[in-house]
Protein backbone atom coordinates (compact mmCIF):
# COMPACT_ATOMS: atom_id res chain seq x y z
CA UNK A 1 0.00 0.00 0.00
CA UNK A 2 1.33 3.43 -0.94
CA UNK A 3 -1.50 5.57 0.43
CA UNK A 4 -2.59 6.66 -3.04
CA UNK A 5 -5.33 4.12 -3.65
CA UNK A 6 -9.08 4.47 -3.17
CA UNK A 7 -10.90 2.99 -0.18
CA UNK A 8 -13.72 1.81 -2.45
CA UNK A 9 -11.28 -0.47 -4.30
CA UNK A 10 -10.30 -2.52 -1.23
CA UNK A 11 -12.23 -5.77 -1.07
CA UNK A 12 -14.42 -6.18 2.03
CA UNK A 13 -13.14 -3.02 3.74
CA UNK A 14 -15.30 -1.41 6.45
CA UNK A 15 -14.77 2.28 7.22
CA UNK A 16 -16.46 5.55 8.24
CA UNK A 17 -17.05 8.25 5.63
CA UNK A 18 -18.85 11.51 6.42
CA UNK A 19 -20.15 9.95 9.63
CA UNK A 20 -21.62 6.92 7.85
CA UNK A 21 -20.60 3.28 8.12
CA UNK A 22 -19.40 1.92 4.77
CA UNK A 23 -18.70 -1.67 3.75
CA UNK A 24 -17.21 -2.66 0.40
CA UNK A 25 -18.37 -5.89 -1.25
CA UNK A 26 -15.99 -8.81 -1.55
CA UNK A 27 -14.21 -8.80 -4.89
CA UNK A 28 -13.21 -12.45 -4.78
CA UNK A 29 -12.51 -15.44 -2.55
CA UNK A 30 -9.42 -16.17 -0.46
CA UNK A 31 -7.93 -19.63 -0.02
CA UNK A 32 -7.21 -19.53 3.71
CA UNK A 33 -5.44 -22.89 3.52
CA UNK A 34 -2.48 -21.11 1.91
CA UNK A 35 -2.67 -17.62 3.42
CA UNK A 36 0.30 -16.55 5.53
CA UNK A 37 0.83 -13.02 6.93
CA UNK A 38 3.71 -10.86 5.76
CA UNK A 39 5.72 -10.76 8.99
CA UNK A 40 8.39 -8.52 7.45
CA UNK A 41 6.20 -5.47 8.16
CA UNK A 42 5.87 -6.16 11.90
CA UNK A 43 6.93 -3.31 14.17
CA UNK A 44 9.96 -4.55 16.18
CA UNK A 45 8.81 -2.69 19.32
CA UNK A 46 6.24 -5.43 19.90
CA UNK A 47 8.92 -8.12 20.10
CA UNK A 48 10.94 -6.72 22.98
CA UNK A 49 11.64 -9.37 25.59
CA UNK A 50 9.95 -8.92 28.98
CA UNK A 51 6.88 -7.19 27.56
CA UNK A 52 4.63 -6.37 30.50
CA UNK A 53 1.85 -8.90 31.04
CA UNK A 54 -0.77 -6.99 32.99
CA UNK A 55 -3.59 -9.48 32.34
CA UNK A 56 -1.69 -12.65 33.22
CA UNK A 57 -1.72 -13.11 36.97
CA UNK A 58 0.49 -16.22 36.84
CA UNK A 59 3.65 -14.27 35.98
CA UNK A 60 5.00 -10.74 36.15
CA UNK A 61 6.36 -10.50 32.60
CA UNK A 62 5.69 -12.18 29.29
CA UNK A 63 8.24 -12.76 26.51
CA UNK A 64 7.59 -11.61 22.96
CA UNK A 65 5.04 -13.77 21.16
CA UNK A 66 3.98 -14.67 17.63
CA UNK A 67 0.36 -15.32 16.66
CA UNK A 68 -1.34 -17.37 14.00
CA UNK A 69 -4.83 -18.50 13.06
CA UNK A 70 -5.40 -22.07 11.89
CA UNK A 71 -8.94 -21.66 10.53
CA UNK A 72 -11.76 -19.25 9.81
CA UNK A 73 -15.41 -19.60 10.75
CA UNK A 74 -17.30 -21.05 13.70
CA UNK A 75 -20.22 -23.44 14.25
CA UNK A 76 -20.93 -22.58 17.88
CA UNK A 77 -23.97 -20.51 18.91
CA UNK A 78 -22.81 -18.13 21.69
CA UNK A 79 -25.47 -15.43 21.99
CA UNK A 80 -23.08 -12.47 22.01
CA UNK A 81 -20.61 -13.51 19.31
CA UNK A 82 -20.24 -12.22 15.73
CA UNK A 83 -17.56 -14.63 14.51
CA UNK A 84 -20.13 -16.27 12.22
CA UNK A 85 -20.75 -12.90 10.62
CA UNK A 86 -17.12 -11.82 10.31
CA UNK A 87 -15.60 -15.18 9.37
CA UNK A 88 -18.54 -17.32 8.23
CA UNK A 89 -20.74 -20.10 9.62
CA UNK A 90 -18.65 -22.90 8.13
CA UNK A 91 -15.02 -23.74 8.77
CA UNK A 92 -12.15 -23.14 6.35
CA UNK A 93 -8.98 -24.85 7.45
CA UNK A 94 -5.26 -24.54 6.89
CA UNK A 95 -3.50 -27.81 6.25
CA UNK A 96 -2.09 -28.99 9.61
CA UNK A 97 1.39 -29.50 8.12
CA UNK A 98 1.34 -25.92 6.80
CA UNK A 99 0.39 -24.63 10.27
CA UNK A 100 3.39 -26.40 11.82
CA UNK A 101 5.67 -25.12 9.06
CA UNK A 102 4.40 -21.53 9.46
CA UNK A 103 5.17 -21.67 13.18
CA UNK A 104 8.65 -23.03 12.60
CA UNK A 105 9.42 -20.42 9.93
CA UNK A 106 8.05 -17.55 12.05
CA UNK A 107 10.34 -18.53 14.92
CA UNK A 108 13.35 -18.75 12.61
CA UNK A 109 12.61 -15.33 11.10
CA UNK A 110 12.35 -13.62 14.48
CA UNK A 111 14.66 -15.13 17.14
CA UNK A 112 13.33 -12.62 19.70
CA UNK A 113 10.05 -14.51 19.82
CA UNK A 114 9.94 -16.99 22.70
CA UNK A 115 6.28 -18.12 22.61
CA UNK A 116 3.33 -18.15 20.23
CA UNK A 117 -0.45 -18.09 20.50
CA UNK A 118 -3.06 -19.75 18.33
CA UNK A 119 -5.71 -17.05 18.12
CA UNK A 120 -8.63 -19.09 16.80
CA UNK A 121 -11.72 -18.10 18.78
CA UNK A 122 -12.02 -21.77 19.74
CA UNK A 123 -9.05 -23.89 18.71
CA UNK A 124 -10.74 -27.19 19.61
CA UNK A 125 -13.92 -26.69 17.60
CA UNK A 126 -13.88 -29.01 15.76
CA UNK A 127 -11.82 -31.34 17.92
CA UNK A 128 -10.65 -33.65 15.13
CA UNK A 129 -8.98 -30.77 13.25
CA UNK A 130 -7.28 -29.43 16.40
CA UNK A 131 -6.00 -32.96 17.02
CA UNK A 132 -4.51 -33.10 13.52
CA UNK A 133 -2.78 -29.73 14.03
CA UNK A 134 -1.26 -30.87 17.33
CA UNK A 135 -0.10 -34.13 15.77
CA UNK A 136 1.56 -32.12 12.98
CA UNK A 137 3.35 -30.02 15.62
CA UNK A 138 4.61 -33.19 17.32
CA UNK A 139 5.90 -34.57 14.01
CA UNK A 140 7.61 -31.25 13.26
CA UNK A 141 9.33 -31.43 16.68
CA UNK A 142 8.42 -27.85 17.55
CA UNK A 143 9.95 -26.67 20.81
CA UNK A 144 8.39 -23.21 21.20
CA UNK A 145 5.86 -22.94 24.07
CA UNK A 146 2.36 -21.86 23.03
CA UNK A 147 -1.19 -21.31 24.25
CA UNK A 148 -4.72 -21.17 22.86
CA UNK A 149 -8.42 -20.65 23.58
CA UNK A 150 -10.63 -23.71 24.06
CA UNK A 151 -14.33 -24.39 24.41
CA UNK A 152 -15.28 -26.74 27.27
CA UNK A 153 -17.61 -28.50 24.82
CA UNK A 154 -14.81 -30.60 23.30
CA UNK A 155 -12.05 -31.42 25.78
CA UNK A 156 -10.87 -34.91 26.67
CA UNK A 157 -7.96 -36.18 28.73
CA UNK A 158 -6.41 -37.60 25.55
CA UNK A 159 -6.59 -34.22 23.82
CA UNK A 160 -5.09 -32.43 26.83
CA UNK A 161 -2.21 -34.94 26.87
CA UNK A 162 -1.67 -34.27 23.16
CA UNK A 163 -1.66 -30.51 23.75
CA UNK A 164 1.13 -30.95 26.29
CA UNK A 165 3.17 -33.16 23.92
CA UNK A 166 2.75 -30.53 21.19
CA UNK A 167 4.25 -27.84 23.44
CA UNK A 168 1.11 -26.12 24.74
CA UNK A 169 1.67 -24.56 28.18
CA UNK A 170 -1.65 -22.79 28.85
CA UNK A 171 -5.27 -22.84 27.72
CA UNK A 172 -7.88 -20.12 28.22
CA UNK A 173 -11.35 -21.60 28.55
CA UNK A 174 -14.37 -19.83 27.07
CA UNK A 175 -16.48 -20.81 30.08
CA UNK A 176 -18.26 -17.42 30.08
CA UNK A 177 -20.43 -18.12 33.15
CA UNK A 178 -20.39 -20.27 36.28
CA UNK A 179 -24.18 -20.39 36.70
CA UNK A 180 -26.70 -22.58 34.92
CA UNK A 181 -28.76 -19.45 34.16
CA UNK A 182 -25.81 -17.66 32.59
CA UNK A 183 -24.69 -20.68 30.55
CA UNK A 184 -28.22 -21.17 29.23
CA UNK A 185 -28.72 -17.54 28.23
CA UNK A 186 -25.32 -17.39 26.54
CA UNK A 187 -26.13 -20.63 24.63
CA UNK A 188 -22.85 -22.26 25.58
CA UNK A 189 -23.93 -25.84 24.95
CA UNK A 190 -22.70 -27.19 28.31
CA UNK A 191 -23.64 -26.98 32.00
CA UNK A 192 -21.94 -26.63 35.38
CA UNK A 193 -21.13 -30.33 35.59
CA UNK A 194 -19.18 -30.07 32.34
CA UNK A 195 -17.27 -27.07 33.67
CA UNK A 196 -16.25 -29.11 36.73
CA UNK A 197 -15.29 -32.11 34.59
CA UNK A 198 -13.06 -30.05 32.29
CA UNK A 199 -11.48 -28.22 35.23
CA UNK A 200 -10.54 -31.56 36.82
CA UNK A 201 -8.97 -32.83 33.59
CA UNK A 202 -6.84 -29.71 33.23
CA UNK A 203 -5.97 -29.50 36.94
CA UNK A 204 -4.50 -33.00 36.69
CA UNK A 205 -2.39 -32.06 33.66
CA UNK A 206 0.84 -30.08 33.16
CA UNK A 207 -1.04 -27.23 31.49
CA UNK A 208 -2.03 -23.99 33.18
CA UNK A 209 -5.65 -23.10 32.62
CA UNK A 210 -7.80 -20.00 32.93
CA UNK A 211 -11.58 -19.65 33.07
CA UNK A 212 -12.73 -16.56 31.16
CA UNK A 213 -16.15 -15.38 32.34
CA UNK A 214 -18.56 -12.47 32.10
CA UNK A 215 -20.09 -10.94 35.22
CA UNK A 216 -23.64 -9.68 34.85
CA UNK A 217 -24.62 -11.91 31.94
CA UNK A 218 -28.33 -12.23 31.10
CA UNK A 219 -30.07 -14.25 33.81
CA UNK A 220 -27.46 -13.42 36.47
CA UNK A 221 -29.20 -11.68 39.35
CA UNK A 222 -27.11 -10.72 42.40
CA UNK A 223 -28.08 -14.02 44.05
CA UNK A 224 -27.18 -16.06 40.97
CA UNK A 225 -23.87 -14.23 40.71
CA UNK A 226 -23.13 -14.87 44.40
CA UNK A 227 -23.93 -18.56 43.94
CA UNK A 228 -21.72 -18.80 40.85
CA UNK A 229 -18.76 -17.28 42.71
CA UNK A 230 -19.26 -19.79 45.52
CA UNK A 231 -19.47 -22.55 42.90
CA UNK A 232 -16.11 -21.55 41.43
CA UNK A 233 -14.45 -21.42 44.86
CA UNK A 234 -15.86 -24.81 45.89
CA UNK A 235 -15.39 -26.87 42.73
CA UNK A 236 -12.77 -25.27 40.48
CA UNK A 237 -8.97 -25.02 40.73
CA UNK A 238 -7.76 -22.90 37.79
CA UNK A 239 -4.49 -21.00 37.73
CA UNK A 240 -6.54 -17.85 37.32
CA UNK A 241 -10.03 -16.60 36.54
CA UNK A 242 -10.32 -13.74 34.06
CA UNK A 243 -13.60 -11.91 34.73
CA UNK A 244 -15.05 -9.15 32.59
CA UNK A 245 -17.83 -6.91 33.94
CA UNK A 246 -20.56 -6.79 31.30
CA UNK A 247 -20.63 -8.12 27.74
CA UNK A 248 -20.00 -6.11 24.56
CA UNK A 249 -23.20 -5.89 22.51
CA UNK A 250 -22.81 -6.47 18.78
CA UNK A 251 -25.49 -5.94 16.16
CA UNK A 252 -27.68 -8.78 14.87
CA UNK A 253 -26.96 -11.05 17.82
CA UNK A 254 -29.31 -12.64 20.32
CA UNK A 255 -27.68 -10.52 23.03
CA UNK A 256 -28.72 -7.38 21.16
CA UNK A 257 -32.32 -8.62 20.99
CA UNK A 258 -32.27 -9.37 24.74
CA UNK A 259 -30.93 -5.88 25.46
CA UNK A 260 -33.73 -4.33 23.36
CA UNK A 261 -36.37 -6.47 25.08
CA UNK A 262 -35.09 -5.45 28.52
CA UNK A 263 -35.07 -1.80 27.50
CA UNK A 264 -31.32 -1.47 27.94
CA UNK A 265 -30.94 -0.16 24.38
CA UNK A 266 -33.38 0.93 21.71
CA UNK A 267 -34.05 -1.15 18.62
CA UNK A 268 -32.61 1.57 16.39
CA UNK A 269 -29.38 1.83 18.42
CA UNK A 270 -26.27 1.23 16.33
CA UNK A 271 -23.73 -1.08 17.94
CA UNK A 272 -20.81 0.23 15.94
CA UNK A 273 -19.64 2.20 18.96
CA UNK A 274 -19.02 0.11 22.11
CA UNK A 275 -22.05 -0.75 24.25
CA UNK A 276 -22.09 -3.28 27.06
CA UNK A 277 -24.80 -5.51 28.50
CA UNK A 278 -24.98 -5.65 32.29
CA UNK A 279 -27.97 -7.52 33.65
CA UNK A 280 -30.20 -5.26 35.80
CA UNK A 281 -30.26 -5.84 39.56
CA UNK A 282 -33.65 -7.52 39.39
Structural class by SSE content: alpha/beta
Main beta sheet, described?
6 strands, parallel
Categorize the overall geometry: globular
Low-confidence stretches: none
Mean pLDDT: 87
Total beta-strand segments: 14
Radius of gyration: 20 Å
Instruction: Output the number of helix runs.
Output: 8
H/E series: EEEEEEHEHEHEHEHHEHEEHE
Q: What is the percent of helical residues?
A: 25-40%
Distance between the termini: 52 Å
- Report the portion of residues in β strands: 15-25%
Major sheet strand order: 5-8-9-10-11-12
Word description of this protein:
The structure is a single chain. The protein contains 8 helices and 14 strands. The protein has 282 residues and is an alpha/beta fold. It has a 6-stranded parallel β-sheet, covered by helices on one side. A hairpin with an 8-residue loop joins strand 3 and strand 4. The longest helix is centred in the middle third of the chain and has 14 residues. The mean pLDDT is 87.
Please supply descriptive tags for the structure shown above.
single chain; about 20% strand; two-stranded antiparallel sheet; globular; alpha/beta; 8 helices; about 280 residues
Structure at a glance:
With 282 residues, this protein is α/β, with parallel strands linked by helices. It has eight helices and 14 strands.
